[in-house]
Amino acid sequence: MMKKIGLFYSFNTNKTARAxxxxxxxFGKDANIEVLNAEKVSEEEFMKFDNLIxxxxxxxxxxxxxxxxxxxxxxxxxxxxxxxxxxxGLGDQKGYPENxxxxxxxFASIVEKCGAKVVGFTSREGYTYEHSAAERGxxxxxxxxxxxxQARLTEKRVKDWATQLKKEFN
Length: 170
What we know:
Layout: E1 5-9, H1 14-27, E2 33-37, H2 43-47, E3 51-55, H3 66-76, E4 84-90, H4 102-113, E5 117-119, E6 122-123, E7 135-136, E8 139-140, E9 143-145, H5 154-168
Parallel strand pairs: 1-2, 1-3, 3-4, 4-5, 4-9
Antiparallel strand pairs: 6-8, 7-8
Helix pairs in contact: 1-5
């Protein structure tokens, strides 16, 4: 049986929250997932899970949202060895092609430095952009969604990612 999963996203960012709900639903009714508001996350809440899914949209010109940016100093003090963290984010590859889904890559780099294993890598195929901090070779280091330009692809991407994470979280 899979360990309990902590699913963190801002309850106030509509697209990221909707994507988080889709991810939770894609795991199925029997999945042991606790949803937590990223805007109110504490170190204790973050540390109580071995498997985490984190929603990190990209703000402005390739920045973390304020609530994650403010949590980074606390996060950098945590020992995340043994934790598996999957990251999803939303970006706009046409409106912001030079920093598409940078938030995913920025957050991945931070948790990797703290000892976590980032899981849930996905293909870059089917995306058109100039640069992304989420790139790791020929993959993204998480699930990169684009509701602005590719909303019709979201359901399948989420479903496939949930299937992949079920294997990687075991």
